[in-house]
Design goal:
Number of helices: 14
Structural class: alpha/beta
Number of strands: 21
Helix content: 25-40%
CATH topology of the largest domain: FAD/NAD(P)-binding domain
Radius of gyration: 23 Å
Oligomer: single chain
């Protein structure tokens, strides 16, 4: 069932059993888990069904520290959320990503990798992925043409990615949500405040507003905030009537530990003979699976480096393509033109016979850093909510890890006699911790309401419940304690499905 919140009587009271705030990958995945149940689910979306500039303006904010993308362009504010412009990259986290690592400050989750296996498999259906198989051998057996480098797998291995079509949640699941008798979707219902009881131990209601001047109240038994990492933190911080520092922020953790994937060109590989290296090849909306080079857990421990992967782009193509940080602007139309030109350069340069040289492009996790954070500005948006300020701050561990990754890969490529690896200039000096102008992120926001067993170390517990608040949950990548190397969407959907199962048990036992 769908209702446009601009068209109902002002100050309406909306009531249900479950209230989900946000309809991106996490919010819609949560709603789908409640289909055909006896519970009334309220799904709140701030925008409508299409892109609107005035809705995007509500996401506008400031950035400081390491150069970053305009905040209003990094996330989409309408039904389906940022799945409206994602590329479909999916891979699982590794066991080491959940462990406490003595060389990675603030690392460690209160859950293990195997706790997500069941949910990864279920998330595949939401994302239109293939079989729950991530071994290179499985995909090479299916397609013998997928050939890569022959390296020692105990040191450098082929980590597989699968590719969603990519699934646009706003398109695929719109009819399912709108026609569901127990799912009540409200568009143009921006949550501007969360009201708790007097001692902030439980949530009573949320306030929604829209640009038509309407305000409504939503009451439910359980609340799930599934906006995105920046907006999740922003909303908790701005909801400060009962808790002056913001809800869930008694230990000053809300908004801290913002993480991105550092995505940056790092090295070149020159082969002894031309090769297509099809195992590492990616073609938009065609490729079903590909590999990236990854460093084994044993070698990560030995060299005390972060988890990261290396992808291949033919060097003569890569040298013509601008850095992502220069492509993505606040002007959506211009960004689309920039991306189209970037993709066209890749298409024009293809050679069937293979290439002699490739650029190695890294996606490496950012170390959890409490100084990398989201705070509130004094400036407010059109609905009266303080805008976000993102301070993105890297540490020397990220650059040390980049050097370590390519030292290991370079040694293995040399041993195999398949070629040589050359570090780019900015990585040559081991005492230099500065970053070049082309440094960018993957638009992967994580960690601002991080998961931790102890409330002193995080915002939510192992079930994504906000510490100290009985009925408030966070959904999505804001719960990540560490970023790992893979793109976050598959894991955030899996974590959301796990949360849904927990909530079903909770509401069932309460009856």
């Amino acid at each position: 069932m769908h209702t446009d919140a601009r068209n109902i009587e002002n100050n309406s009271l909306i009531e249900g059993d479950i209230c989900i705030v946000g309809s991106g990958a996490a919010g819609i995945s949560m709603a789908l888990e409640w289909l055909n149940t006896p519970y009334k689910v309220i799904l709140l979306e701030g925008g409508g069904f299409e892109y609107e500039a005035q809705m995007q303006d509500l996401y506008k904010g400031k950035t400081t520290g390491q150069r970053y993308y305009p905040l209003e362009s990094a996330r989409l504010h309408y039904f389906g959320g940022t799945t409206g412009h994602w590329s479909g990259f999916c891979s699982t986290f590794d066991p080491i990503d959940f462990e406490e690592r003595d060389w990675v400050p603030h690392s460690g989750w209160p859950i293990k990798r195997e706790d997500l296996d069941e949910y990864y498999a279920r998330a595949h259906k939401n994302l239109d992925l293939g079989p729950y198989e991530y071994s290179a051998k499985y995909w090479q057996d299916k397609n013998p043409d997928l050939k890569g480098l022959t390296l020692d797998e105990k040191t450098v291995y082929n980590k597989m990615w699968q590719f969603s079509p990519p699934t646009r949640f706003g398109t695929k699941y719109r009819d399912t949500i709108v026609k569901a008798p127990n799912i009540h979707l409200y568009t143009y219902a921006n949550v501007t405040d969360i009201t708790a009881n007097e001692n902030a131990s439980a949530i009573k209601e949320v306030t929604v507003k829209n640009l038509a001047g309407k305000q409504h109240t939503v009451r439910a038994k359980q609340f799930i905030i599934a906006c995105c990492s920046i907006q999740n933190a922003r909303l908790l911080l701005a909801s400060n009537k009962q808790a002056p520092k913001g809800l869930g922020n008694q230990n000053d953790n809300v908004g801290r530990y913002f993480m991105e994937h550092l995505e940056i060109k790092s090295a070149e590989i020159w082969l002894t003979k031309p090769d297509a290296l099809k195992l590492y090849h990616w073609e938009w909306e065609i490729t079903k699976a590909r590999a990236e080079l990854a460093i084994s857990e044993e070698m990560q421990r030995k060299h005390k480096i972060l988890n990261g992967t290396a992808s291949f782009t033919p060097l003569d193509i890569a040298r013509k393509q601008p850095a992502f940080i220069d492509i993505w602007t606040a002007d959506t139309a211009q960004t689309k033109k920039n991306m189209a030109k970037f993709d066209q350069l890749g298409q024009d340069g293809k050679k069937k016979e293979g290439y002699k040289a490739f650029q190695l492009f890294t996606r490496v996790e950012q170390a959890p850093n409490p100084n990398s954070r989201v705070t509130l500005d004094t400036d407010k948006d059109a609905l009266g909510v303080p805008r976000a300020i993102l301070h993105w701050e890297l540490t020397p561990l990220e650059k040390h890890s980049l050097r370590g990754i390519y030292k290991i890969i370079g040694e293995q490529v040399g041993i195999s006699a398949e070629g040589r690896v050359r570090l780019l200039d900015y990585l040559q000096d081991e005492s230099d911790n500065t970053w070049p102008a082309f440094t960018g992120g993957g638009w992967h926001h994580m960690g601002t309401t991080r998961m931790a067993a102890n409330p002193k170390n995080g915002v939510v517990d192992a079930n994504c419940k906000v510490h100290g608040i009985s009925n408030l949950y966070m959904a999505g990548a804001s719960c990540y304690a560490t970023a790992a190397a893979p793109n976050p969407t598959l894991t955030l959907v899996a974590l959301t499905i796990r949360l849904a199962d927990h909530l079903k048990q909770k509401v069932k036992s309460a009856v």
